[in-house]
Amino acid sequence: MAAPKGHARYGGRKKGTPNKQTAAVKDMVLTALGNVGGVKYLERQANENPTAFMTLVGKVIPTQVTGEDGAPVSVLTRIEIVPGVRSKD
């Protein structure tokens, strides 16, 4: 049975504690990347396998988007009225 709502948490890892296995795998991947040529290898993959490379880029770039100097993103909507030319029917 679950503890009542608002009950103090006890047991388990503390919030924000990194997973040791994830850190170990990340270290192995970075070591392997260094062993096969690092940046030059990634450049070659970008040309030879662009889909896989762009998937990697999408996972590396942060997903949180902020505006200038960390401010919220502002949206500007502009409506333009452009004179058209009527065709002769």
Number of strands: 0
Number of helices: 3
The arrangement of helices and strands along the chain is HHH
Mean pLDDT: 83
Distance between the termini: 77 Å
Task: Tell me the β content.
Answer: under 5%
The helicity comes to 40-55%
Oligomeric state, counting identical vs distinct chains: single chain
Shape: flat
Structural class: mainly alpha
Q: How would you characterize the largest beta sheet?
A: none
Q: Supply Rg.
A: 25 Å
Which spans of ≥5 residues are poorly predicted at pLDDT below 50? none
Structure at a glance:
By secondary structure, the protein is mostly helical.
Explain what the structure shows.
The protein has 89 residues and is mainly alpha-helical. The protein has a domain at 20-59. Helix content is 43%, strand content 0%. It has 3 helices and no strands. The chain has helices spanning 20-36, 39-48, 50-60. The longest helix has 17 residues, at 20-36. The radius of gyration is 25 Å and the shape is flat.
Secondary-structure topology with pairs:
Layout: H1 20-36, H2 39-48, H3 50-60
Helix pairs in contact: 2-3
List the main descriptive attributes of the protein structure presented here.
single chain, 89 residues, mainly alpha, 3 helices, 0% strand
